[in-house]
TrEMBL record:
Transmembrane segments: none annotated. This is AAA domain (Dynein-related subfamily). SMART domains: AAA (SM00382). It comes from the Bacteria. Residues 18-223 form the AAA+ ATPase domain. The lineage of its organism: Bacteria, Pseudomonadati, Pseudomonadota, Gammaproteobacteria, Candidatus Kentrum. One of its GO terms (molecular function) is ATP hydrolysis activity.
Length: 315
């Protein structure tokens, strides 16, 4: 469950109104990624997540060229001694291009057609290949691509700067040209909402920032705003697990606040915060369901493993 506060609602509405990507900044575990999925569910849109890694290239967000499958197909065709003209047609680059998340977001039907054409999908059953189900983003929340799409580009700061730099043109012009194609892919229908997250491990290029709106998610600072910090945790804990006793929610928030202050003073990262708090509540809820007294006893026992991840006093 994601809790939309006013700043998140305003930021999403502004991004929808301007057509700009929304860059969501903040520490790990504060709810940046969940914002994208929750927004897609709220709007009834298709949800298309993509997690960036250190090996991600900017084109992976638009398309992926399967060079290994193409080479294998060429070697197999040569070994079998098939018709050369037919083999040449089969080895066309566009038969080995898989649509990426932005392709699905820009032109779902076009991406679906390309997914069905994608030659390495030949090992799938005929129905899956014909309709492009092999690569189609699953919609577990019932999102409808006809209502538009919400794309999550998660943890963009994990990659080198060629990722944000490589997105400048596609974000600005809302089109791109896949390798081996002669026609560009344009936005068809409702423009997508693109949400990009960063843990701010690396600074983003200025040109990239100018093309985005920015939302900074942060918990109140400690120790100065401890009361507000704990109030926010209790409120969000109540949304996630409404059957837990409020006294337990408050005790758990107090433990997380104490550990966060200790981690800050010892310069430990990541700081315990909202994610650890919710995990702690879920653990207690599962270990002592429906028993407030037992849950309170379990709190400190479990907290040392869920919250105190950098501490040496777990024995």
């Amino acid at each position: 469950m994601h809790v939309f506060d006013k700043s998140r609602i305003d930021a999403v509405n502004a991004a929808l109104a301007t057509g700009r990507p929304l860059l969501v900044r903040g520490e790990p575990g504060i709810g940046k990624s969940q914002l994208a999925r929750a927004t897609a569910k709220l709007l009834g849109r298709a949800y298309i997540p993509f997690v960036v890694t250190s090996h991600t290239e900017s084109r992976d967000l638009m398309w992926r060229f399967d060079a290994i499958s193409r080479l294998a197909h060429a070697q197999l065709g040569a070994a079998l001694g098939g018709d050369k003209d037919n083999l040449r047609r089969e080895l066309a680059l566009d038969n080995f291009i898989a649509p990426g998340p932005l392709w699905w977001a820009f032109d779902w039907n076009g991406a679906r057609s390309q997914a069905a054409r994608y030659l390495p999908s030949s090992h799938c059953d005929d129905e899956a290949k014909q309709v492009g189900n092999y690569l189609q983003p699953p919609q577990s929340d019932g999102g409808d691509h006809k209502q538009g799409a919400v794309v999550l580009i998660d943890e963009i700061d994990k990659a080198e700067m060629d990722i944000p730099n490589g997105l400048l043109e596609v974000l600005g012009k809302r089109c791109f040209l896949p390798e081996g194609f002669t026609e560009r892919v344009y936005v068809e229908g409702v423009p997508p909402l693109i949400i990009i997250t960063t843990n701010e491990e690396r600074a983003m290029p200025d040109a990239f920032l100018r093309r985005c709106l920015a939302l900074h998610l942060a918990l109140p600072s400690l120790p100065g705003e401890r009361e507000k910090f704990q109030e926010i945790l209790v409120e969000r804990g109540g949304h996630h697990l409404p059957d837990l006793d409020k006294t337990l929610l408050e005790s758990a928030a107090c433990l997380v606040a104490e550990d966060r202050i200790i981690a800050q003073n010892q310069h430990h990262r990541p700081l315990p915060g909202q994610a650890e708090y919710i995990d702690l509540l879920h653990a207690i809820h599962e270990l002592a369901p429906g028993n407030p007294e037992a849950q309170q006893k379990k709190l400190e026992q479990v907290a040392r493993y869920v919250v105190s991840k950098r501490r040496s006093d777990q024995g």
